[in-house]
Structures are given as C-alpha cells and as structure tokens.
Amino acid sequence: MKNTWIIRRLILTLALFWTGISLCAQERLNLHLDYTRFLAPNKDTVLLLDYQIPYRSLIFVARDGAYFAQVAVQVQISSRDSLLFEQSITDNIGIRSKHDALSNQKAYLNRMSFQLAPQTHIVQYRATDINSGRVFNWSRELEALPPTARISDVELNSRVYADSSSYLAKFQRKGKIYEAQPSIILNREYHEFAHLYLELYTPEEELGQSQLLMLSLEQDGEIVMDEYLDTTPMNTNESISLKLPLQGLAAGKYYGSISLLVGENLESRNFAFVLSEEVETMLNLFPNPDDEFNLMRYFLASRAPSNWTSMNEEAKRRHITNFWKSMALSTGMSEQRILDMVKDRVDHSNRYFSSLKPGWTTDMGRIYIRNGAPADIEKGTSSDESRFVRKDYQIWKYGSGNRAVYVFMDIQMNNNYRLIYVSGDDMELSNPDWLRFLGSDFDTSLLRN
User: Fold this and answer.
1) pTM score over 0.85
2) Which residues, 6 or more positions from 60, have their beta carbon under 8 angstroms from its beta carbon?
3) CB 35 within 8 A of CB 142
4) Is 242 exposed, middle or buried (0-12, 13-18, 19+ CB in 10 A)?
5) What does the pLDDT look like over 2-49, one tens digit per residue?
6) Which of 120, 135, 246, 237 is nearest to 181 (CA)?
7) Domains of the chain (ranges plus CATH)?
8) I want to staple 69 with a disulfide (CB 3.0 to 4.6 A). Which of 55, 58, 270, 449 is the partner?
9) How many CB atoms lie within 10 A of CB 169?
10) Exposed (0-12), middle (13-18) or buried (19+): which is 230, by Cβ within 10 Å?
C-alpha cells in the first residue's frame, strides 16, 4: 500500500511483532494499524487510517446484560512544526457473549479519514484502553500523493461483500463492504481470498485509451504470481477490485506490487500480507467431550448450555475451549495453569475418592475439584440415635470465601461418601433429613466455621 518496499517490510515486521506480544504486558495495547492514500477530486490526498483491536487484548466490563470496552483514540497531523489537524474519539465496543473476548479471530475495526494538501506530514496516533490503561503509540512521516498520481495505494481487505446497512458504514463502497485488514495477516482457515482495492486517476484527454495493469506477487524472492490486465478507463476516477486466491499459496510472507503502464510511464504501488495456517488450539482435559461437560457443570451449575446434546463434536470442543479460556480470564491464571490445577484435583479425587465409580464423579470429587483441599477435615461416626446403623462421616471446612462447610456420609458403606449437608455454598443443597442421618444427638456446634 506504500511507495517503498522499506516501509512495507517495516509494517510487516511490526504486524508480526504485535501478534506475538503477550496479553500480560500491561503497558502496551495490542493493536494493528495501516494506512492507504487516495486522491480527492481537488487533488488533495485522502488519508485513511484503519485500526484493528483484537478483543483478546481489551478489558470488557459487564453492564446491562452485555460486555463493554472503551478505547480513547487521538490523532495529530503536523507539517513543518505546525499542527494541522487534531481529532479525538472514544470507541465504545460492545459484545453480547464473554466468549467473544477470548476469540483469536474476532476484533474491533474502525477507520479515520483526513484530507491532506500535497506536502510531507507527520502523523501521530495514540490509542488507550480505558479499562486497563494499556496504550498503543504510532508515528510516521507520510508524503501526500502527488496531484499527478495515476494510481492510489493498494488497500488489503479480508472480505468484500454486499451490505448496504449501517454496519461498518465507513468501509462501504457502492453497496459493498470492503473489510480492511490492518494486521495484514490472513488465515487460510477463515479467508478464501485476499481482496485488493485501488483507484486509477486518468486525465480527461486520455479517457478511452487502453492502459496495462500488472500484478506481481513474490515469496522468498521468487515470483508466484504475474498477471496482466488491460483496462480502458471511461472516468477520471475508476475503482479496481482484485481477488487473490489463497488456497494455492503456501503459508508465509508475501510481497506484491501493482503497476500501471500508460505509454512509457510506469507507476507502481506495493502491498504485503502474511498467510497463516494457524488453527486455534482446543483446550480439554478428557478425550470424551461429554465427560468434560460433566466436569464443566461443577463450575457452571445452572448456567451450563441446555442444547449440549444437539451440538456436533466440533461445536462441543469449541464450547469447552471457550469455557477454559473464560476460567483462565476470570481467575487471572494462564490457560495451561488452570488446566494443570484442575487436572491435579481430578487425579487426587480419583486416587482418594473412587469407589464403584471414578472419584472425580463423586460428591467429594465435585467439591474438591471446585474448591480445592479443605482447610480442615473432621471425621466421625454417626450415633445409635441416627436413622441407620453407625456410618462414617466427614466434615470439610473452608477458610476463604463464604467459609463453606460440607458434611459427607458413607451411606452405603462402600467409600462413596454422599453430601448430606452444606452451608455457605449456593451451588449445593442439603438433604432435608441430614440430621436424621447423623443422629438426633449430633453436636451441631461441629458445623461452626
């Protein structure tokens, strides 16, 4: 999209750098920015600044049944130490599902537009995530397009589709949305084409004359695409939209150019993109997604999805992945750490609570997996005043949160302790006859915590 390969390669390097930044780096906002230049009818340059913020890099706050983030954006354009333009906006970003905040693919996209006289400009861009305080800064010296330019910059789009609604209105052209890709990273799993948009500027006296448009694409110094297109402009400003199929291309970096040959005059614009084959990592503890669903219910309770049985296996595994990502986000742990912690609890439950079924599926296993080890365990035997013959019981007490207390009894005398009493935990229910199991003479002071 720029005049020189140096700028294009710098943008590519920055895009790859931003992609690899850890979300734990509090001081820097993960944001992708790109620009394109077009000529206005008065021959000034229209500068489009497109920025893309992955949802994963924002902090969303729950409000009114949805989740919201705010980003403060400021742009300053100066020339010869004089401030020409200054614009500040606040992007209010809303999502309905908190799982969208964990997606590797979903992002917020916006565009700012400026008109520049033919000269050199310093453009400074700053974005701040208001909820986290993370900041992104960008500064560049840009030349306006010369009034005699015959071709605009090349705009890279991930998708082009018909839509005349107000959605992404800033990216509409003649009833179609050109969805810009400031990250210049395209994933073969989600993108079938790279869409290129540019404009041709032809003097009135040359209208109707044939021109030659040349497209070249290379990877690792080798030409992988070389196309020629004859065009005959009938208007002084004409739009060109090209589709590059991605299925036949190998993953990696691509550098391209579009050149316009008019007589002996050759004018070129360059572009670049990265083709990725990265597939989102699926997170799970159990090979069988239905087992994982039963484990998830320990944490979700009534919020577990009611349509689980109607989901196909891919949808189930994606839901499981989103669940663990959400758990990691809410606890402040990494995804691997939360998985390791729960796996350790599952293994402990299988080792110590198993009877006729795996320990992680028992009442003790459920409480241990959800809450971890209790701060105190008291063991005893019910009295002769109980409903049944004497049976062993355990009282688990936790010292944090609501200081929950649980009473388990080995009702069937097979080491499958059943939960009969609970306090301080709204996700569990006591058996109405819990005291009859323990005996009327049970010392209830043992349940104080």
Assistant:
1) no
2) 67, 68, 69, 93, 95, 98, 101, 131
3) yes
4) middle
5) 444 433 433 333 333 333 323 333 478 999 999 999 999 999 999 999
6) 246
7) 5-276 (2.60.40.10), 281-370 (no CATH), 374-449 (no CATH)
8) 58
9) 11
10) exposed
